[in-house]
């Protein structure tokens, strides 16, 4: 499928470009052949048939991460290792995603669920896969062992932070830091925490993009949920929350996602990056998109009630 090849190559192209503009290829003395081999492996390990969790999502998150790392609060304090880790984690954070969620893997007795003892199953797998590819490609083999180990560990801590079930833990720590103005970005652990938050923001930033893009991501993620729901129905398993196409509409899923996950996180990110034109633009778009989905949900209700004609642009083309 040529189109998917182009889409997935965008991850390799984007990463090469970003590592180059930051001078990281030179800084870490990276071998271009090994780098391309590694990035090619990452790209190929994304499943191109997943509607959402494919290499294009990885490229999207990487692009967002780059923008967040450029925030004036951060940019000058980040070390080359911080930037390298941030971009690498973004590019690889969902690698080999099976297109179903953790509860599905647990209830179907998937080997990954037992391997990672039902905890951060997917995120652990994304991380360990990335480490495997780093080692296999030999990308960092010229660096001292302690530095390689440190990179692998930090990569794990970043990717594991994308586990949405740990959202409240991160959000309250972030809020606490902002309330007490206790973040000191001259300290490496504090910069690492902000990298975790930035990656979490990048991972859920779809509703902060312009409606036309935002809507397509929303439809894609719901399509992936519905596919899981269809498999669950087929095997007479209980249908997971948000995965029932008959009951969980795209607008209702999006309104819940925005209100409970995206909005609270970006409110704090906006506070942290203040003054940031980008954060303000994102908050504006977030509100506009939420309003749009509310309008669509309302239309859907009218349709269900039989009161409205089929005029909502809710259905996929
Ligand atoms: Zn993701």
Write the layout of secondary structure elements.
Layout: H1 2-21, H2 24-27, H3 32-45, H4 55-69, H5 72-75, H6 80-92, H7 102-107, H8 111-115, H9 121-137, H10 145-160, H11 167-180, H12 188-203, H13 211-234, H14 250-273, H15 277-305
Helix pairs in contact: 1-3, 1-4, 1-6, 3-9, 4-6, 4-12, 6-10, 6-12, 9-10, 10-12, 11-14, 14-15
The structure holds zinc ion (ZN).
Quick synopsis:
With 317 residues, this protein is an all-alpha fold. It folds into two domains: 171 residues, Catalytic domain of cyclic nucleotide phosphodiesterase 4b2b; 114 residues, no CATH class.
Describe it for me?
- The radius of gyration is 20 Å and the shape is globular.
- The protein folds into two domains: 1-94 and 125-201, 3'5'-cyclic nucleotide phosphodiesterase, catalytic domain (Catalytic domain of cyclic nucleotide phosphodiesterase 4b2b, Orthogonal Bundle); 204-317, no CATH class.
- The protein is mainly α.
- Mean pLDDT is 93; it is low at 307-317.
- It has helices at 2-21, 24-27, 32-45, 55-69, 72-75, 80-92, 102-107, 111-115, 121-137, 145-160, 167-180, 188-203, 211-234, 250-273, 277-305.
- Bound molecules: zinc ion.
- Zinc ion (ZN) is lined by residues 57, 61, 93-94, 203.
């Amino acid at each position: 499928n040529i189109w998917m090849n182009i889409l997935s190559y965008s991850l390799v192209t984007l990463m090469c470009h970003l590592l180059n503009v930051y001078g990281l290829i030179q800084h870490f003395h990276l071998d271009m052949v090994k780098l391309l081999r590694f990035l090619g492996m990452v790209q190929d390990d994304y499943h191109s048939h997943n509607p959402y969790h494919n290499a294009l999502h990885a490229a999207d998150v990487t692009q967002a991460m780059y923008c967040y790392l450029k925030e004036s609060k951060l940019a000058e304090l980040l070390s080359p290792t911080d930037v390298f880790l941030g971009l690498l984690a973004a590019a690889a954070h969902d690698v080999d995603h099976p297109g179903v969620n953790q509860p599905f893997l647990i209830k179907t007795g998937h080997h990954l669920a037992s391997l990672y003892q039902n905890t951060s199953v997917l995120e652990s797998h994304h991380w360990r896969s990335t480490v495997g590819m780093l080692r296999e490609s030999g990308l960092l083999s010229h660096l001292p062992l302690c530095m390689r180990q440190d990179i692998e560990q930090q990569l794990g801590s970043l990717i594991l932070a994308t586990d949405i079930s740990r959202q409240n833990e991160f959000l309250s720590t972030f809020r606490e830091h902002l309330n007490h103005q206790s973040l000191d970005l001259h300290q490496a652990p504090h910069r690492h925490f902000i990298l975790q938050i930035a990656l979490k923001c990048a991972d859920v930033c779809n509703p902060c993009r312009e409606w036309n893009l935002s809507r397509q991501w929303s439809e894609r993620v719901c399509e992936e949920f519905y596919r899981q729901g269809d498999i669950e129905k087929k095997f007479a398993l209980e249908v997971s929350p948000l995965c029932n196409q008959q009951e969980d509409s795209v607008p209702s899923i999006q309104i819940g996602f925005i209100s409970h996950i995206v909005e609270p996180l970006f409110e704090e990110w906006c506070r942290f990056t203040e003054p940031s034109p980008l954060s303000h633009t994102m908050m504006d778009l977030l509100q506009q998109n939420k309003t749009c989905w509310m309008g669509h949900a309302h239309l859907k209700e009218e349709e269900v009630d039989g009161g409205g004609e089929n005029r909502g642009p809710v259905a996929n083309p």
